[in-house]
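Hi V.,

Quick status before I head out on leave. The structure for the redesign project is tokenized and pasted below; the design run finished overnight.
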């Protein structure tokens, strides 16, 4: 993400809000201006973090020269991936190993897209972008299709269970994915503080004092979460 803005000359970039901050920070650091008026580049997070909304891939500006589709959370719904757009000029699709497979510490990700852009991105990153252990672990995990299918089913069930649990305490579902959920809890800071006192981490946002994002608990942690609530 940090290297992508350097692939093209500086200009205007469209990043629809709310979404997570790394893309905007990278483009701003690279001298770009966040502006929806005739942008040269656009970043779409699909599904979005934290709202969980998917992009249908249709409202692409014909004058756009550079499109980044961040699918870090899309492995929960591979049938909704926009990887088919990676063959178009000026498009890069990003994938993350740390979300669905839960191994963020491996620091493993992927960029698919326009060969010219991907080639330049590889030059920016350098020859040692991924460690040997990450390559071995990633190849093994990505090849275990049965585990992936079973995990998608479990996550969907767990997301519904978390919604029922949190909404039973007066919250409302705003959005999310089968990896994290977003709730309107009224007073997000109060909820975050009370959960943190009991060693449960919730995420709040500077643009909303009502939204709280929670990740799905580990399968063995449901009793503790229920006791905390």
């Amino acid at each position: 993400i940090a290297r992508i803005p350097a692939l093209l000359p500086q200009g205007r970039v469209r990043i629809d809000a709310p979404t997570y901050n790394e893309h905007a920070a990278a483009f701003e650091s690279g001298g770009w201006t966040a502006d929806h008026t005739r942008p040269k580049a656009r970043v779409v997070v699909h599904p979005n973090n934290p709202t969980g909304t998917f992009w249908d891939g249709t409202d692409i500006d014909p004058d756009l020269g550079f499109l980044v589709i961040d699918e870090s959370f899309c492995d929960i719904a591979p049938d909704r991936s926009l990887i088919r757009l990676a063959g178009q000029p000026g498009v890069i699709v990003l994938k993350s190993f740390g979300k669905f497979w839960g191994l963020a510490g491996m620091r493993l990700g992927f960029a698919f897209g326009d060969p010219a852009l991907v080639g330049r991105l590889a030059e920016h990153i350098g020859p040692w972008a991924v460690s040997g252990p990450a390559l071995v672990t990633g190849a093994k995990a990505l090849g275990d299709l049965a585990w992936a299918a079973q995990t998608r089913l479990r996550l969907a069930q767990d997301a519904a269970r978390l919604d029922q649990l949190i909404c039973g305490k007066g919250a409302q579902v705003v959005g999310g994915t089968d990896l994290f959920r977003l709730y309107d809890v009224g007073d997000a800071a109060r909820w975050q503080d009370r959960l943190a006192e009991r060693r449960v981490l919730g995420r709040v946002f500077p643009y909303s004092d009502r939204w709280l994002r929670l990740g799905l608990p580990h399968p063995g942690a449901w009793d503790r979460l229920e006791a905390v609530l």
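Above is the designed sequence. The mean pLDDT is 94.

G. will cover questions while I'm gone.

Best,
W.
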